[in-house]
Amino acid sequence: MEYLILMTLSERGVGKTDEENKEILEKKILPSIDMLISMEEEGMLSGGFFGGQRSAAFVMSVEDEQTLDDTISQLPCSEIFDVETVPIESLKQARERDLDVLKTLGGRL
Fold first, then answer.
1. Residue 52 has what pLDDT?
2. Which domain holds residue 62?
3. pLDDT the model gives residue 81
4. DSSP string over 18-45
């Protein structure tokens, strides 16, 4: 199944000092980007960060929602990013769903 992943840096991800920001980059953000690059190379996801921002959008292919949750929680940056996930319905699935609705409404196929 595919999911849209939206990530936005939260206030927890902004340090008050240069040293705090350095630690956030070294321990949270850069390791997460490396993990995401590996997932991209494996064909598990596509997408990226919005230019000049600390927000990102990815489409991730995983077996189920539990795998999705486990994968996201393994990212060090999951502690400092707000993450929203949305299941993506394929075009064929959307067509079938709408055909079923049309049938219940007495529409013609």
1. 87
2. 2-104
3. 97
4. HHHHHHHIIIIIHHHHHHHHHHHHTTSE
